Amino acid sequence: MRTLAVLQHTDSEYLGLMEDHFEQRGIRFRYVRPFVPGTVVPATAEEFDGLVLLGAGPRGVVSGDLLPSLGPELRLTADFLRRELPVIGIGAGAAMLAVAAGGGAEAAPLRFCLATAERAAAESGAAWLPERFPAASYLRDRPLPPADAAILARNEGGAPLLFQIGPRALGFLFHPGMKTAMLEDLVMEFPEAPDDIPAGLDALRAAQHAIAEALSTMMVGLVVLTGLMAPP
What we know:
- The chain is α/β, with parallel strands linked by helices and 232 residues long.
- It has one domain: Rossmann fold.
- The protein has five helices and eleven strands; from the N terminus they run E-H-E-E-H-E-H-E-E-E-E-E-E-E-H-H.
- The strands form two sheets. The protein has a nine-stranded mixed β-sheet.
- Strand 10 (160-165) and strand 11 form a beta hairpin.
């Protein structure tokens, strides 16, 4: 069985709807919670077959309240990339992936967005994605992928929502397995929250079924692209 290291940065944000999809494919995941006293970020990728970097709520990578474990996590991400092991960055995790891969990140305010993502042309490597799907984002700052990254999906305004670095690393500016309860808990966990959260929650509730349907399609392609599909 394959095992993922999942770097969790808040009590509220976790793999969400993605958990069942990994479990159904025999892919185990081990949460590592650096915000819990006594927890140490792994020094290398040796014990794992892949890495997931989750979002960080209102914490940033270049602005605001910086993620305290940022340095060790960047070093760990770079080690996974050197070994050509899968890396999946979500929200702030996508910014960390971009930095570790030689790109960067820029300051942007904390925000919640529910966008309609549009798949890039199939020749860009995006054929495994639905043509259009809802994308729920809760993050501060913005990743700047390296120049050789492929943009796989954009919002209706043309801004990147999903990028690929190398053969097995993906950066999601949205959480593909977002649950309404996750957003509710993030708002309650921290004193800082984006404006107009009640309207955002209503929109997310209305989109929950469509998010789950899109994820079912995406997970098929994701585990194949990253090489995480467990052997029979």
